[in-house]
């Protein structure tokens, strides 16, 4: 028996795609090339069936898999095809040979067998010679060469041979811009600089002790993202990441950023676990473009005391001299300089520059203050000193007269109108949020309920103030609406043994007390709902009568009348000035919203406010 | 006449863009004689309202009807809005209802 693939075997098969199973097939021996399993299966194998000249994609019968698994038939081995079907693959010119019955001829071979090329060339030469000799154009019988149909995959495979895919990252590295990252595509590599490195912190939770640390990463376009590492990954990467160095990172995971802890402008945040790959980029020096996200001065109110660092741009109106501030924590003195900037929202704000920024940039600004330079500052903390104040932090960046479109816009505005305009400090709008003049403060820091309820960290160390416009949607009649109060000092009194009420604060008892409201009510606005704590003064205005009166109605006129009084207060819109704090209750952090002042919605003023807000939307 | 069921908010300036269409507006009554009211629109233009019910002078009146001229409306419904009315806010509303947000008012 010949142990060689049958010459023209593939051609025979191609010519006869569906032989009758019973009929005698001509001898077809083929070499099994590129034998591999389909997917993870151990019963289905695919290979290229070769007759030395042509190849066709083929599949072995599943029952034959045992021959392969036992080593009886290996790659480059020979099989005799006893029964087969040739299928057409839709949308492709190539066919697939489904071997239904075969037997092993040779278990393996050293290499792929290719028929002698010499023979072919000889035949070709003969044909050409014959052509030349014949004067008359007689039909020259050239050996018909079947066109070899190869699929792209075949060609690529042949060219690459059986080389393993490039394992080293640097060979296949394709850097993705940070802005293109999303949680649904995991196959990325980024090239970033560490622009901020946090400390390795230890925490304790239900599961025990853990370690965590963050880094802020910036890429060449200026896009930033925060990356967090926990436990093992934290320990592994903490020494690896160095501030200012550039790294190639892959195999991190992305998720929507937690608003509470967000310090950079990115919808996503990254987590790196132990499987992440971090490689230092040797000799890479790129300075990421500083990407700004400017906030107009009149919008700063809502960022007061937030963790989020903001960017501003404005014309410098004033530069103070350097002050030395002594830091309470370690008695160290730090230089500080205050500059006043204005922008086209016609408001001014004071920015405190610290340390190097105070001494160097601050001096520069002082020298050129008469030219009313434009200054752009990135990463400022918003505080509430004197209403609204801005402060630099260690990673703040200050640029004087930057070449940005906003800078040019400001320059034109200032030269035309800003110079002469008298502008108020945004701080003065904020400084007294609790003025008795309810209507004015009801329009500053106006937010929707969702702004408060969606951010649980609001007011975590200091209460934050907002105005809201909401409808009272529920007053529960069965809550403790009031408490017994001392007629003199309004503090809670306790019932003394003889009929009378004892006031701890005044140190005396009285047989009369007054009832003061203390209740929670539910409010709703187009964005959601919330529970507000309300005290006596505002509750009286909402319900329309004093707590004493309401108790009288409840006792004397009956529960129906009492409920009616509460119902009448519902679905009335009010403007509320509220304070938001975060307290702990039974180990859980809870948000508490307290009403500080209340006013009924005045349609005219509210309409004016709405028209202004709508006008701002379309700019 | 095109009398589709929805009336567009207009002021004096915008009325002429909706001739033969159903409009609604508020005017301050200046003169009142025999079913015709001379009113001042919220953007200080003179409008004539035909077939209007009698509303006292200086009161604000809402008119819903069909515009039959650049400064004239044939009234279908008239309502006395009294004297407490903020013309500026209504004017702002008319501009929004015809401007880039007009889709919200369809």
UniProtKB/TrEMBL annotation, chain A:
Subcellular location: Nucleus
Annotated Replication factor A C-terminal domain residues: 465-610
Residues annotated as domain Replication factor-A protein 1 N-terminal: 6-106
One of the GO BP terms on file: DNA repair
Residue ranges occupied by any Replication protein A OB domain in the UniProt entry: 304-401
GO molecular function: DNA binding; zinc ion binding
Gene3D superfamilies from the UniProt entry: Nucleic acid-binding proteins
Record flagged with keyword Zinc: yes
Keyword Zinc-finger part of the UniProt annotation: yes
Database matches in Pfam families: DUF223, Rep-A_N, Rep_fac-A_C, REPA_OB_2
Domain Replication protein A 70 kDa DNA-binding subunit B/D first OB fold positions: 176-280
Oligomer and partners: Heterotrimer of RPA1, RPA2 and RPA3 (canonical replication protein A complex).
PANTHER family referenced in this protein's UniProt entry, alphabetically: OS03G0429900 PROTEIN
Protein name: Replication protein A subunit
Organism from which the protein derives: Rhynchospora tenuis
Automatic annotation (TrEMBL), chain B:
Presence of keyword Nucleus: yes
Top-level taxon: Eukaryota
A GO CC annotation given for this chain: nuclear lumen
Family under the similarity heading: Belongs to the replication factor A protein 3 family.
GO molecular function: DNA binding
Keywords from the named record: Nucleus
A GO biological process held by the record: DNA repair
A Pfam family matched in the record: Rep_fac-A_3
Localisation per UniProt entry: Nucleus
Organism: Rhynchospora tenuis
Protein name (record): Replication factor A protein 3
């Amino acid at each position: 028996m010949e142990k060689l693939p049958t010459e023209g075997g593939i051609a025979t098969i191609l010519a006869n795609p569906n032989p009758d199973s019973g009929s005698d097939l001509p001898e077809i021996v083929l070499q099994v090339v590129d034998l591999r399993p389909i997917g993870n299966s151990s019963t289905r194998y695919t290979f290229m069936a070769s007759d030395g000249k042509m190849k066709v994609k083929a599949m072995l019968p599943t029952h034959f898999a045992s021959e392969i698994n036992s080593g009886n038939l290996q790659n480059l081995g020979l099989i005799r095809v006893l029964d087969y079907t040739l299928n057409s693959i839709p949308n492709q010119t190539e066919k697939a040979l489904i071997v239904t019955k075969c037997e092993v001829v040779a278990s393996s071979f050293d290499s792929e067998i290719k028929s002698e090329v010499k023979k072919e060339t000889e035949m070709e030469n003969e044909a050409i010679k014959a052509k030349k000799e014949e004067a008359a154009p007689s039909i020259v019988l050239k050996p018909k060469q079947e066109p070899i149909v190869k699929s792209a995959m075949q060609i690529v495979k042949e060219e690459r041979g059986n080389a393993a895919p490039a394992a080293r990252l640097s060979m296949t590295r394709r850097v993705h811009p940070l802005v293109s990252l999303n949680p649904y595509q995991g196959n990325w590599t980024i090239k970033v600089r560490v622009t901020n490195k946090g400390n390795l912190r230890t925490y304790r939770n239900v599961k025990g002790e853990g370690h965590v640390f963050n880094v802020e990463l910036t890429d060449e376009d200026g896009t930033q993202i925060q990356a967090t590492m926990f436990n093992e990954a934290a320990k592994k990467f903490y020494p690896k990441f160095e501030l200012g160095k550039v790294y190639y990172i892959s195999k991190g995971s992305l998720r929507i950023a937690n608003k509470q802890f967000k310090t950079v402008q990115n919808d996503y945040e990254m987590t790196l676990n132990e499987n992440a790959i971090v490689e230092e980029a040797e000799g890479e020096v790129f300075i990421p473009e500083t990407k700004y996200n400017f906030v107009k001065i009149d919008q700063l109110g809502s960022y007061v005391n937030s963790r989020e660092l903001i960017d501003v741009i404005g014309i410098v109106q004033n530069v103070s001299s350097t002050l030395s501030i002594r830091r309470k924590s370690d008695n160290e003195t730090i230089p500080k300089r205050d500059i006043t900037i204005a922008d086209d929202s016609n408001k001014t704000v004071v920015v405190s520059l610290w340390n190097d920024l105070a001494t160097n940039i601050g001096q520069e600004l002082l020298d050129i203050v008469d030219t009313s330079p434009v200054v752009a500052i990135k990463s400022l903390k918003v505080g509430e000193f004197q209403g609204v104040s801005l402060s630099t932090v260690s990673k703040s960046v200050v640029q004087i007269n930057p070449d940005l479109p906003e800078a040019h816009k400001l320059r034109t505005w200032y030269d035309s109108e800003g110079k002469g305009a008298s502008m108020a400090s945004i701080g003065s709008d904020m400084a007294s949020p609790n003025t008795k003049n309810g209507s004015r403060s009801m329009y500053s820091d106006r937010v929707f309920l969702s702004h408060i309820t969606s951010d649980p960290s609001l007011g975590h160390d200091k209460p934050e103030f907002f105005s809201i416009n909401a409808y009272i949607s529920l007053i529960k009649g069965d809550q403790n609406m009031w408490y017994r109060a001392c007629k003199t000092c309004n503090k809670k009194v306790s019932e003394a043994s003889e009929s009378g009420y004892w006031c701890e604060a005044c140190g005396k008892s009285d047989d009369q007390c007054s009832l003061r409201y203390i209740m929670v009510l539910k409010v709703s606005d187009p964005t959601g709902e919330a529970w507000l704590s309300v005290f006596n003064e505002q509750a009286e205005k909402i319900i329309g009568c004093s707590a004493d009166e309401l108790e009288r109605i409840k006792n004397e006129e009956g529960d129906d009348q009492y409920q009616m009084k509460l119902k009448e207060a519902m679905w009335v819109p009010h403007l509320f000035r509220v304070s938001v704090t975060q307290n702990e209750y039974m180990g859980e952090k809870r948000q508490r919203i307290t009403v500080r002042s209340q006013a009924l919605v005045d349609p005219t003023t509210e309409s004016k406010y709405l028209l202004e807000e709508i006008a701002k939307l379309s700019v | 006449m095109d009398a589709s069921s929805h009336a567009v908010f207009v002021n004096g300036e915008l009325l002429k863009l909706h001739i033969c269409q159903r409009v609604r507006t508020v005017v301050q009554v200046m003169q009142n004689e025999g079913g015709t009211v001379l009113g001042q629109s919220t953007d200080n233009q003179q409008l004539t309202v035909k077939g209007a019910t009698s509303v006292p002078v200086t009161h604000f009146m809402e008119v819903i009807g069909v515009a039959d001229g650049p400064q004239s409306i044939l009234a279908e419904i008239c309502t006395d809005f009294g004297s407490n009315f903020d013309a500026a806010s209504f004017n702002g509303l008319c501009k929004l209802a015809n401007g880039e947000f007009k889709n919200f008012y369809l």
